[in-house]
Design a protein that fits this description.
Length: 523
């Protein structure tokens, strides 16, 4: 029964086809990364250049993920994905031809790797925002887990295939296979005809959507804590991916095939970890799981420069894959389950910025340190940083959100105005006047702090709570929303059950409901 439940989304034809196409694309991406790193190992011999391949592929996510999330929330997602895959196919053809004809200097390779990363930056949040259109809401956790399995299956298979192909046919063939994976994904998207999901509401404007997405993250303590935990793991963890080709070539004397085996070991461990995760989540708390995984990864980083043989390194890398997927699948699932529907793509985009930015910056730092001090000291520094991050769980644990109601809640009364503002009219000042008994005043002010965060997450740009100097029993909440359309969206679906509970807790401390006024700009 458990197995059927875990794989249930694959029974949906559209999800299954797109999931398989994305799996092929992920495999191609890992083949591309291995090919680029190995090409630079052979041509440059520079630790920094090899590590910067990871930086070049992940930095575009830092720069483009949030705009991509806004695009995914405001444009036709299928067409956006299709256009990106066609573009990536063209870039892949250019990369392949130049490599096969020996016209691929390191600078151009890193530039084209950056361009491919830009395409992936748009693909990731768009694909994740499509998933709720493909499977029933009850299957969203399973679909998210299948995404982790796809990524880590690709991590296991892609490097091994790349290593064999590089050894037998050269790096150009690897780049060609990656290009083919983009074309296959584009073909599947072209054949997919999604049911119309339009609800008649006007989409948010792009710039406003970017601002509202970043504003939501900025004023959500739960999301900020999730991002912090991800960064504290990813920055030291990126040392493994950045320096593994150097461990393979310099410490172990392996060729491209051996390097592929090492990466496949990490991927195999990650797949096993994804399958093991539900049992461990049932046995351990989320923070204990993060602690054990971080300590495990610390030991792996130390052992990588201590064990003497390829077989021993393979054994060491298996738990690294398990720990990697334990942490990142848990953190990603926490984001998926906490974010409300209206901002999910943008919230996940910010998570991807932290995910990619931590690895991009980390890879660059570890590469430079390895050039200066060598592989051994660099791995020891990364291990120490990983262990220090694990210790901070005592003060900065992930928050338990299992009891939070994240369903949309429409509970504000419809505003009745004599004026008829357009969606773009603004700014709008909303005031709410509360009568509060003196005995409840301190508790009311404290309760309104959660209301403040709710208002700022869902559209307000400024918020204040004031007390009437002539009548101390009266409190006035005032907040500014950029436009009337933005305030209407607060009324019609941006609030969640948790927001409703916070507001009801504050109102219960007042003498009746608030007197609400909507003040429109007079200019």
């Amino acid at each position: 029964m458990t197995t059927e439940t875990a794989w249930a989304p694959l029974r949906v034809t559209a999800f299954r086809s797109l999931w398989l196409a994305l799996l092929a694309s992920n495999i191609g991406t890992w083949m591309q990364t291995v090919g680029a790193q190995w090409l630079l190992v052979e041509e440059s011999g520079s630790d920094t250049l090899v590590a910067v391949v990871q930086t070049a592929s992940t930095l575009p996510i830092v720069l483009l993920a949030l705009p991509a999330g806004a695009l995914a929330d405001t444009f036709d997602r299928r067409r956006l994905l299709l256009a990106v895959q066609v573009f990536l196919t063209g870039v892949g053809v250019l990369l392949t031809v130049l490599t096969v004809t020996d016209h691929m200097p390191p600078e151009l390779l890193l530039t084209l790797t950056f361009v491919l990363g830009a395409g992936q930056a748009v693909t990731a949040p768009t694909w994740q925002s499509i998933i709720p259109e493909l499977v029933p809401r009850s299957q969203l956790p399973q679909a998210s887990a299948l995404g982790a399995i796809s990524m880590n299956l690709a991590r296991a298979v892609g490097p091994a295939i790349a290593g064999l192909l590089i050894a037998r046919a050269g790096t150009g063939v690897v780049f060609g296979m990656n290009t083919l994976s983009f074309a296959v994904f584009a073909l599947v998207l072209f054949r997919w005809r999604p049911a119309s999901t339009g609800n008649g509401d006007a989409p948010e404007r792009f710039a406003a959507a970017v601002r509202s997405g970043s504003r939501y993250v900025r004023h959500s303590p739960v999301v900020r804590r999730i991002l912090l935990r991800a960064g504290l793991f990813l920055i030291p963890g990126s040392a493994l991916w950045a320096l593994l080709p150097l461990v393979a070539s310099r410490r172990l004397g392996l060729g491209s095939g051996g390097y592929g085996v090492l990466l496949a070991a990490v991927g195999a461990g990650a797949v096993f970890g994804a399958l093991l995760l539900p049992r461990l989540r049932a046995r351990w708390s989320l923070n204990r799981l993060l602690l054990i995984s971080s300590v495990t990864f610390t030991l792996v980083l130390l052992l990588l420069v201590a064990v003497p043989s390829e077989a021993a390194v393979v054994v060491v890398l298996l738990p690294a894959g398990v720990a990697w997927v334990m942490v990142l699948s848990s953190v990603n699932a926490s984001m998926q389950l906490f974010l409300p529907n209206w901002v999910r793509a943008r919230g996940l985009a910010v998570y991807q910025i932290v995910f990619a930015g931590s690895q991009a910056a980390g890879a660059l730092v570890w590469g430079v340190l390895s050039d200066l001090w060598g592989l051994g000291p660099t791995h020891v520094i990364a291990a120490g940083l990983m262990l220090a991050g694990a210790v901070t769980l005592r003060w900065w644990p992930l928050r338990d959100t299992s009891g939070m109601n994240r369903d949309p809640a429409v509970f504000w009364p419809e505003p009745h105005l004599s004026l008829d503002p357009s969606d773009r009219d603004g700014p709008v000042l909303i005031t709410a006047r509360y009568a509060v008994a003196p005995s409840n005043a301190d508790a009311f002010v404290e309760a309104m702090e959660r209301v403040r965060l709710s208002r700022l997450r869902t559209g307000a740009v400024r918020w204040g709570l004031f007390r009437d100097g002539a009548a101390p029993g009266w409190f006035v909440e005032a907040y500014v929303v950029p436009s009337w359309g933005e305030h209407v969206r607060q009324h019609e679906g941006r609030l969640t059950g948790s927001d409703q509970e916070a507001e009801e807790r504050a109102v219960a401390l007042a003498d009746g409901p608030a007197e609400v006024s909507h003040l429109l700009s007079a200019r």
